[in-house]
Amino acid sequence: MDPVRNPYAPGAGQRPPELAGRDREVDAFDVVLERVARGRPERSLVLTGLRGVGKTVLLGELRSMAVRAGWGAGKLEARPDAELRRPLSAALHRAVRDLAVHHRAPDRVEETLGVLKAFALKAAASDAKIKDRWQPGIDVPVQHGRADSGDIEIDLVELFGVCAELAADVGVGIALLIDEMQDLRVDDVSALCAACHELSQSGAPLVVVGAGLPHLPAVLSASKSYSERLFRYVMIGQLDRTDADLALTVPAKREDAELTGAALEALYEVSGGYPYFVQAYGKAAWDAAVQSPIDADDVRMAAPEASAELAVGFFGSRYERATPAEREYLQGMAEIAEGRDEPVPTSKLATHLGRKPSSLSPARDSLLRKGLVFSAERGWIAFTVPHFGRFLLGRD
Predict the structure, then answer these.
(1) CA distance 97 to 74
(2) Are 76 and 261 in contact (CB under 8 A)?
(3) Which is one Pfam family of this protein (predicted)?
(4) pLDDT, tens digit, 9 for 90 and up, residues 56-66
(5) Is 168:71 a contact under the CB 8 Å cutoff?
(6) Backbone CA torsion sign across 211, 202, 186, 88
(7) Whole-prediction pTM
(8) Regarding predicted confidence, which is higher, 268 or 139?
(9) All domains in the chain, ordered by first residue
(10) How buried is residue 328: exposed, middle or buried, by Cβ count under 10 Å (0-12/13-18/19+)?
């Protein structure tokens, strides 16, 4: 079949041709947009799930929805050990520019940008040389006195308030979308929770939508006890059989192609319903098929090639980041779980490796920081990447 017309799109954060299985989340966010626009209180949203389930894609879809509704919207990706001020300033700058198109008072917009610039400039060390100081690229005079104390918690509360006031003038809201939220520094998580708490109390039209790994709720709860009530948590998982079939058949029909029932069954079995894998194996099956309809034999022929590509890019790139001690830890997890995507007890892992639990703590902590594992609950550990155990057991 013509590879140029191949409709499937396996890629990091790349929107699939058919966003199947996410209607519930999309409809819920549509309600949030309407409620906030009408001055009704609404909680911020946190999406959690393993790698490859489509959290980043869904964030992009929610951002597009906000833009279509006339909202200001900005998106950022948290990075380990990097402070929040710079990327958040850029994201809110984008959101304010979205609102400026609809606002009738240029002076009001400029004032908001001036406060945002004051907030952003605090990202530079006070003793840094002029040539080394970061400039936020906001071409307005600085408005001193708000959001520039240097205390991120105080400043973020004030900045969110100022930006929300601008959105209220237009009769819409602001959506701030944060990917990889679990990688925020402890102080930044605390500040973000405090700012969202203030927003919920005042009913200000600014909503934070965060996305991260399954342990993100625990990260937020450890920062502020009230975070359990502050956010609405939504777990994003693999697709069920019906939605996985839709993700494959709808794009194929647009290209005048079909898949047999046996092919769909084989694709679901090999992909496990994880959206990234559905796209990867679907793309390989299309390229392997001689003609429509794509059948189970095409899937079986294509599966090794797709698996090899995932082994290098999706799995291999993560495995290469691990040290020998960390690889031993990962291999032990895979052997205990027998390649299944399920958590394992750390005590059993220590016994399996013939080690004392305390001696494994450095490897465990490093793997947590690298985002390769997460603590499902106290005394248990799990892979953040689906099928990672199967990959480890299948290596030579």
Answers:
(1) 10
(2) no
(3) AAA_16
(4) 999 999 999 99
(5) no
(6) positive
(7) 0.90
(8) 268
(9) 23-235 (3.40.50.300), 241-318 (1.10.8), 323-394 (1.10.10.10)
(10) middle
